[in-house]
Backbone:
């Protein structure tokens, strides 16, 4: 007789749920009988996600970089939750495409506040609740760029490396508890992150964001639905590092084989990959 899934029927929280991975993870959890609490800055997209969910759902327009707002949302979710907490997915993310030497400070702060401090705010809001109930899972989204650096993505890479370090440290703190700490590294997933990005210049020096959007659409190989399946299955298996997509797996291997010179190897195949 197989064991009952860890997440089934438990209340789960997903940030950045108005589209992409956040949306598909929330829908997948709902299909497992999980009441889901979802938030996003995009109120219209968030409502669209809620309309796709058949079970109990709690929504809130929220900027995850707002610490007080994040704490208030967690308190309200606790009052609403029809069951114990399962998984808290800190998933909201943004990016800016610009060269470090030309970077606008306000853009860098925007990326770091959402990508890193949003994760910290979400973790601080829900971790005490999980400690109180004795189990659960904190799942933080880093990126393939949390395993490497990429030109014109300096602050995005910095924020995702920060999420990686923060989450790995947290996992070691929780090692003697029943609280799961999982770190997600998505590769190219077909989401709106590039369309919603602030754009100045890409890694080839282009200033037309349409070129970057087209290229992103061409090279992304993982659907949000596939990403959601990988993430949920990874949490069920209590995997500390969840690599989403073959490009994420390949980057992890490349980083171990050539931790300093990986970009030299990438450049050799860059023309083919971009085509």
Residues:
């Amino acid at each position: 007789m197989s064991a009952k899934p860890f997440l089934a029927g438990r209340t789960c929280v997903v940030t950045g749920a108005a589209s992409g991975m956040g949306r598909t993870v929330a829908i997948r959890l709902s299909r497992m009988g999980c009441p889901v609490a979802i938030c996003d800055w995009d109120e219209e997209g968030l409502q669209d996600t809620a309309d796709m969910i058949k079970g109990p759902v709690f929504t809130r327009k929220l900027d995850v970089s707002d610490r007080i707002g994040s704490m208030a949302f967690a308190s309200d979710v606790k009052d609403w939750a029809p069951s114990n907490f399962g998984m808290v997915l800190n998933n909201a993310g943004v990016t800016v495409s610009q060269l470090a030497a030309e970077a606008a400070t306000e853009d860098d702060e925007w990326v770091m506040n959402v990508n890193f401090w949003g994760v910290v705010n979400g973790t601080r809001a829900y971790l005490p609740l999980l400690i109180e109930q004795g189990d659960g899972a904190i799942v933080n989204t880093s990126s393939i760029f949390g395993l490497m650096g990429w030109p014109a993505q300096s602050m995005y890479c910095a924020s995702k490396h920060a999420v990686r370090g923060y989450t790995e440290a947290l996992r070691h703190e929780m090692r003697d508890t029943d609280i799961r700490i999982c770190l997600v590294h998505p590769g190219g997933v077909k989401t709106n992150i590039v369309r919603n990005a602030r754009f100045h210049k890409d890694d080839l020096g282009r200033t037309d964001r349409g070129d970057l959007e087209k290229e992103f659409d061409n090279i992304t190989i993982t659907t949000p639905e596939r990403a959601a399946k990988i993430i949920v299955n990874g949490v069920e298996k209590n995997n500390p590092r969840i690599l989403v997509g073959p490009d994420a797996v390949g980057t992890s291997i490349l980083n171990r084989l050539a931790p300093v010179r990986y970009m030299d190897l990438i450049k050799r195949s860059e023309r083919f990959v971009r085509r």
